[in-house]
Here is the input.
Amino acid sequence: MATLATMLDRFTTPHDSGGARPRILANEDPFEVPAFPNEDVYLYIKHIDNSRILREADPAARQICWRLIGSSFAFAVIVIALLLPSLNRLMAGYKMEALRQERQRLELDRASLELAETKLLSPARLEELARMQRFVDPAPEAVVYLEGNKSDQILAKK
Here is the structure.
């Protein structure tokens, strides 16, 4: 990248129209490394001890910090308040889907329980259980009718 100084040097320095070969002086060493830019500048680093110095309190900085904290908190509350309805709608959707799945599962359980109940209460199974436990139908003479209430007797007489 060219600077203004290098661009102006182009106009002020005389040009050699001779060969492109550099000229070497008699007392100059051709293998000597050229000097680095600012090689003669020496920077001295002085150690500074600031341990005994107290920092001056800035009341404006404290106020700015609290104002930044308050505005950040207010911004966070506003963002949460704006996102809360959509989050509520999302959670309600998940709950509705979970309730639908639970309803389907309960309907399947109910159907399987009704099937098991009909199998257990079928007349063929009841007869088989009666035979296994040696239940016998009583003879008609062995049946004893219990006396009912007085209201039952009045109804029976009519």
